[in-house]
Amino acid sequence: MMLPTHAIIGLAIATPMVALAPDLAPAALAGGLAGGIFPDLDLYSGHRKTLHFPTGYLFAVLPATAVAVLIPQPAAIGFAFFVGGAAAHCQMDRFGGGLELKPWEGGSERAVYDHVRGEWRRPKRWIPYDGSPHDLLLLSTVAVPLLVVLDSPFRLVVGLALLIGVLYVGLRRRLAAIAPVVFGLVPDRLSQYVPERYRN
C-alpha cells in the first residue's frame, strides 16, 4: 500500500488516546504516525526487507505496551504506538501486491521479508497494488473521520496525506512507465543504488 495509507493507519491506531488520555494523545499520535512511515525508509535500500520486520514488530508490541501502561509518560506512550504503527505497516504490505514496479501485472511473489522465518511472505493482493483505487478507498475511509476527530497539526497531516494519495493514485501507472527512463540516466557509479525493479 502507498505511504499515505500507512501513515494514516498509524495515526488511526493512536486516535483513541484523544478520548482516553488527552494529555498523552500528541505523543501517541506522533508515535503512531512515525511508526506507520518508518518501515518505508528502506525504499531505496532493500525495500520491504531492511526495515520491515512483520514478526519482530508484532513481538515488540506487547512489551512496549506493558511499559507504556506501567510508565505512562510521553516517551513510553509514543514508542508503544510507534511499534504498533510499524507492525501494522508490515502486516498491511502482505495484504497488497508484490514488490515490483508494475504490481498490477502480478509477477512478484514477494510482499514483505520475514526475518524470523528467513523468507519472503507472499502478497495476498486484497488491495491489488499500492496506488490502486482500492488503496485510495481504504485511505479515504480511515482519513475522513480523522479529519473530524483530530486537531491541528494532525488534521493538517491527514489532509496532506489525502491530497498526496489522490495525486499518487492518478499518476501511479505513469510513474511506473517513466521510472526506468529516469533511473536509466543515473551515472554508472551510482547505478548500484538504484533498486532492481526500477531498471526494468
List keywords for this structure.
7 helices, mainly alpha, 200 residues
Portion of residues in beta strands equals under 5%
Q: How many helices in DSSP terms?
A: 7
Sequence stretches where pLDDT stays below 50 over 5 or more residues: none
Give me the secondary-structure category.
mainly alpha
Please give the oligomerization state of what you see. single chain
Distance between the termini: 21 Å
Transmembrane segments: 56-84, 127-148, 154-171
Organism: Halohasta litchfieldiae
Protein name: LexA-binding, inner membrane-associated hydrolase
Keywords: Membrane, Transmembrane, Transmembrane helix
Can you offer a commentary on this structure?
This protein is mainly alpha-helical and 200 residues long. It has one domain (3-198). It contains seven helices and two strands. It has helices spanning 3-14, 17-20, 25-37, 54-70, 74-95, 133-149, 154-183, and strands at residues 112-114, 119-121. It has a two-stranded antiparallel ribbon with strand order 1-2. A hairpin with a 4-residue loop joins strand 1 (112-114) and strand 2. Helix 1 crosses helix 5 (74-95) and helix 1 (3-14) packs parallel to helix 6 (133-149). The radius of gyration is 18 Å and the shape is globular. It starts with a helix and ends in a 17-residue tail after the last helix.
What's a quick, concise take on this entry?
With 200 residues, this protein is mainly α. The chain has helices spanning 3-14, 17-20, 25-37, 54-70, 74-95, 133-149, 154-183; strands at 112-114, 119-121. The chain has one domain.
